[in-house]
Amino acid sequence: MDLVLPVLATLALWWFSTGLIMVLAERSRGLRLVAMAGASVLAAIAVATLWMTRELATPAGTYVASLSALAIWAWHEMSFLFGYLTGPNRGTCPVELVGWPRFRNATATLIHHEAALAATVVGLGFISLTAANPAGFLVFALLFALRLSSKFNLFLGAPHFSDQLLPSRLAHLRSYFRVAPVGPFFIITTSMIAVLAASLLWGAAGASSPFDAALLALLGALAALGAVEHLFLALPLQDSVLWRWLLPARDPRRTPDL
């Protein structure tokens, strides 16, 4: 119980903040700017917090560092969904594009976002990778890896995916999603994530210290959530059900200020 409640609280915060960002993504330009400014302040505080807790190898240090990583992740999510940090290509995919040209065009739709995420992984690595408490770096790096896997699977093809929550300004991304049966890449990546989640949770159960137990449990829960997210791509279910509470707040007929 000492581990379950903090881990569930962290996941609940991720769930709520993700839904809130999706709601704000369809609001006015002015409100988005205010929200982005607030998120930038929180992200700066989060970076400072990661620096201050890098030697705090306790369960509390794990949760504080993890929440800081989630705040930084939220900044990146907002910058992408609000349309501030995406890529040079804002057009739909020409139907004749296949293979490498299609991949190149798809990459250009979000390369600035991906580069910023990768740079953040490197920066957080310098801050905490060799420290006593690397939780912030590990959480952010895991989220980055899970998101990359999801994007590659959407590009290569999946039988089911939900784009209901995609903001209007990013509607062109739908043209790069491919409906297709699951292939080897999906099976391999989803299996690897599931095995990783099971290994981390198993390690948490037998950890030699409260700090290791908290860190492994949190990472295992996030990996398990990533495996479930991948399964949504293969099953006739929509991950938008996780944020059903926010759908009435969004009007798909409305074109927001870009």
Structure description:
The chain has 258 residues and is an all-alpha fold. The protein has one domain. The protein has helices at residues 4-24, 29-52, 59-81, 99-108, 111-128, 135-156, 184-205, 210-234. Helix 2 packs antiparallel against helix 3 (59-81) and helix 6 (135-156) runs antiparallel to helix 7. The chain is globular, with a radius of gyration of 19 Å.
What are the main properties of this structure?
single chain, 258 residues, mainly alpha, 64% helix, globular, disordered C terminus
Kindly, what is the distance between the CA atoms of the first and last residues, rounded to a whole number of angstroms?
46 Å
Counting DSSP E segments of at least 2 residues, the number of strands comes to: 0
Low-confidence stretches: 251-256
Bin the strand percentage: under 5%
Q: Radius of gyration from the CA trace?
A: 19 Å
Number of domain modules: 1
Q: Structural class from helices and strands?
A: mainly alpha
Helix content: 55-70%
Question: What coarse outline follows from CA principal-axis ratios?
Answer: globular
| Biggest sheet descriptor | none
Short description:
This protein has 258 residues and is mostly helical. The protein is 64% helix and 0% strand.
What order do the helices and strands come in, and which of them pair?
Elements lengths: L3 H21 L4 H24 L6 H23 L17 H10 L2 H18 L6 H22 L27 H22 L4 H25 L24
Helix pairs in contact: 1-3, 1-8, 2-3, 3-6, 3-8, 5-6, 6-7, 6-8, 7-8
